[in-house]
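It is worth pausing here to work through a concrete case rather than discussing structure prediction in the abstract. The textbook approach is simple: state the sequence, then state the predicted structure, then interpret. We follow exactly that order.
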Amino acid sequence: MLLSKHSYLSRHGIKYTSSPIICINNHNSNCHILCINKRNYAIDTPPEDLQKNVPALQENIDMKNLTLQSSTGRSSVSGVRATVFGASSALGRHIVNQLGRMGSQVILPYRGDGTEVRDHKLMGDLGQIVPLPYQIRDKRSVERVIQDSNVVINAINRRRESRNFSMHDTHVNATHMIARTAAELGVDRFIQVSTANASPDSPSRQFSTKYHGEQVAKAFYPEATIIRPGQMCGNFDW
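Step two, the predicted structure:
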């Protein structure tokens, strides 16, 4: 069953407020008054027991040193088991390839028939790149793709809305589901890929919801790594 925006907000403790903004457009002596509702989203402080599941950043020094020392290629073992959401995107392909080059095991959650991530298997050693089907609104399937991972990377992005997924669903609700599930399972590191123009006051729904997605990630992972890339272009950037 697909959850509406307000149903998801009420079930998962995300506050939603709307304040009207009156805009006056005076063009050709014709005065037009437009009333625009400005959406504000805020998440309640998550339970402290969830934050206690996440190790402090200083406790991951050994794992990071092991990763930096692993330079023997795709057949090496870096000790990193990463779940990459949004792996089929232009940026996601490069993330998976870099993880595969250092000998990491990478879990690729995908929707549909998996065609978009099928060629990712060549980016790592045999059995190291594992595509798994999931549904972002199904908590059990999200737990299945995150369990046993020590790094979660959320690179999900959407530039336009669809009938099933709005900007808020993609950038806020999805981040909430992934970050909360990762905290419950005790994942060490959480990396959130945002955008350089993320701002709570942005007139763009993409940029404003990206900012609120950052706040959701930091609510569960105060030491989360937030990446704000600029404009990217290259292969597979459709």
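Step three, interpretation. Residues 1-11 have pLDDT under 50 and may be disordered. The radius of gyration is 20 Å.
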